[in-house]
Amino acid sequence: MLRRHTPVALGGAALLLAAVTACSPVEENDSTTATSPSAAATCTPATLATKTAGKLTIGTDNPAYEPWFSENKPDNGKGYESAVAYQVAERLGYQKSDVVWTQVTFNNAIAPGPKAFDIDVNQFSITDERRAAVDFSSPYYLVRQTVITTGKSKIAGAESLADLKSAKLGAQVGTTSYQAITDLIKPTTEPAVFNNNDDAKKALENGTVDGIVVDLPTAFYMTAAELEDGVIVGQLPQVGVPEQFGIVLDRGSPLTGCVSRAVDQLRQDGTLAVLEKTWLADTAGAPELQ
């Protein structure tokens, strides 16, 4: 259990992402990352087939949550995912003024069918099931799912998955956070499903659920800045290939290779590590649940 009474500390582990992606299997899209000079020459605003010529349309949800975004303003460049998005745009040759943001709900972004965006950043975990409907870029963040609660909850002192079996837990609909509850914790009570993390947080505050599952940076932010007497119960185990966030594109998008190439550059030159250290909490010390 980790109680959070102080502002979120700055720190980072994006170098761990680089290490993991270097030595662990990272499943790629059918469209592979372009590396040749001729391929690189096609990754420019003049040649990319975007929704609007010369513009890059980026989707995300509303509200856009901290610490991934800031002040619910994706276009201000603040927050980890907003900063990553603008860095990707820059690597593709777009100025900040050429970036257009559009609101897209989480589930709509990963549903089959044409998209209203060129790329979408919204904490999308890369999964085989989702790949049947959309493309993903190379991963830009290694993620752990985490159980949080408040000090008055019966699970505040939980130290293992077994301690959570009888808990009423919840998570946002359609997320790997919800899947982690059903596949890893397997509680005896059916988990609650929420439209977004705000609704999940309200349910936790009023006692409708004993705890909720979110990604680790969100867990640190919520317990430090949004919940009274917020508690990080612990991180859930990683099973199989490490869970990673990727940028979402339309299935078969001609931009997928170029976007993956941009993300790869950001990882290789240390930019992702700098952005993570700037915008995300230092996750050291979060308990592990087994």
From TrEMBL:
Q: Which domain of life is it from?
A: Bacteria
Ionotropic glutamate receptor C-terminal domain: from which residue to which, for each copy? 55-282
**Domain annotation Solute-binding protein family 3/N-terminal: ranges:** 55-282
Classification via PROSITE patterns: PROKAR_LIPOPROTEIN (PS51257)
Q: Which UniProt keywords apply?
A: Signal
Q: Which residues form the signal peptide?
A: 1-24
Q: What is this protein called?
A: Amino acid ABC transporter substrate-binding protein
